[in-house]
Amino acid sequence: MCGIIGYLGYREAYPIIINGLKKLEYRGYDSSGIAIFYDGGYNLYKTIGSVYELEKKISYNIKIDEKKGTTGIGHTRWATHGIPNDINAHPHVSNSNELILIHNGIIENYHAIKIFLSKKGFIFNSKTDTEVLVNLIEYIKNENQLSLEEAVRISLNEIIGAYSIAIVEKSHPERIVIAKLGSPLALGINDKEFFIASDPIPFLNYTRNVLDLKDGEMAILKRNHELDLRKITNNHKLSPSIRELHINLKQIEKGGYKYFMLKEIHEQPKTIFDTLRGRLSNELICIEGIESNIDRFINAKSITIVACGTSWHASLIGEYLLEDFAKVPVEVEYASEFRYRNPIIEEQDIVIVISQSGETADTIAALKLAKAKGAFVFGICNVVGSFLARNVDAGMYTHAGPEIGVASTKSFTAQITVLFLLALKIGKQRSKITHDRYKLLCKELGSIPEKVRITLKIDNIIDTISRNYHNVENFIYLGRGINFPVALEGALKLKEISYIHAEGYPAAEMKHGPIALIDEKMPVVIIATQNSVYEKIIGNIQEIKARKGKIIAIVNKGDFQVSMLADHIIEIPTISEELSPLLTVLPLQLLAYKLAYIRGKNVDQPRNLAKSVTVE
């Protein structure tokens, strides 16, 4: 969940590393550090706090000449082992000060290794597993008189856990060794230079040629542009597979918005359109991953959807859609729980794994478990070349573009769009949905981008509501049917970025406990669109009003009944109930953003959170 970056080439490394860390800060921002190498030595700086704090510290303590050096590594940390402080920040240095290492991941057997090394006379200053790893490499290197790359390879074969690393030897700054297992690592390749990063975003200004290291691979990079790619287990030499990356640089800039989250909320008309493009044409849905495996989907006994966080909420909506349209039993599982029990998965079953990054550790573990049980695994993710994309049997990209804000927004609606297409396609192929209903839903799905654009024009209403409730410490979110997962997602967004406690419930469950919390200080956000249980929702609202709760209702344009009862209403265009989550979630995203902004929170970098959870 940390961000790592490195450079080896002919340019000054410092500006590349420091600017790269700024672009990776969404991956972790508890602390950061940098090491710049020159012949015979290096300058190392690290500090608690943001990359801005690191840059400020360097500017106070370093001379311009000391920034020079054409090899460098940097790290922005999301703490796992050891609290955020200067000592625990990366890079970490071996006892001899000869080896300098950055690391993303978790070394599960670090404690046993630490005990072993302590008996050998090694001293540890930090509480991190990374300092243990760099000293293990040093011990094996010196004990056996090995090269750095061979010491790294042997050490990593002793490691249990996940990692992506970059390590430099002080006496040989013309070389960087990198390796990967379970944590993302990309290598940018240009004429006479290499760029290392957790994802390609930091080096897009320099090169679009990318090598995605696979699990169990390591590479030795040398200044004369030598690239030696090998298997960690057996040292077998590999042939690099380099791809050209196609990303519009404007997608990773704020474009006039104060925060990436707000930009990404307003990008949703385009991202939904892009997700539909080439897949929906009038009444025709084209999904290659289904069409080439159609018998699997027609004959599936059951479908299990596995995901984490916001993707799990999208999966719940997918459950409603698949069971409704395709009439196939669906279970939705938390990936973190799925991997540690013995799920009943058979060869005729389908497992759908969903992850924005395609690198979520728990989801990847679930993917591996499903494949080991013989299931057909279908993936939904946003990142081309990710582990998930490379290892599923078939799948779909969401085409949401880079999502920098830690709190997912456009990824959620893109995932719902893909699941809607998937459910309609399977339902049609299984002859479980009528032609008239299928035709109507295809038509309405095509209208969604414009209706999303209209829905997002609610800034004044959101401003008013936010200013009324920014000082409260608790919210309740209610929804029924397919909008219950939207209530969960709305509550999650509020918790993530404003630090206001919020809970989502099915509206009918309120009277089974949560109603005890209702009083005149409790705002209740209720999704009250005109659907099959509209009258029931009216009854739920009456119960809240009887206890003096404050009602913030999301309603269809022109609603009369709820508007007479609610303290605040947010109108959305009329749409079929099945498609309504694509609209009802939008006010909840904006509300969370505005409340966090008014409360003075860092919307893009909420405390304790990182964008891509690549550790367990």
Query: Which CATH architecture of the largest domain would you pick?
Result: 4-Layer Sandwich
Poorly predicted runs are none
Strand count, sense and closure of the main sheet?
8 strands, antiparallel
Tally of helical segments: 20
Fraction of residues in H or I helices = 25-40%
CATH class of the largest domain: Alpha Beta
Radius of gyration: 26 Å
Total beta strand runs: 27
CATH-defined topology of the largest domain: Glutamine Phosphoribosylpyrophosphate, subunit 1, domain 1
User: Looking at this structure, what is the CATH superfamily of the largest domain?
Assistant: Aminohydrolase, N-terminal nucleophile (Ntn) domain
Please indicate the count of domains: 3
The fraction of residues assigned to DSSP E strands is 15-25%
Tell me, rounded to a whole number, the average pLDDT: 89
Strands of the widest sheet, in order across it, are 3-2-4-1-10-9-11-15
Helix/strand-derived category reads alpha/beta
Gross geometry: globular
Distance between the termini: 10 Å
Brief digest:
36% of the residues lie in helices and 24% in strands.
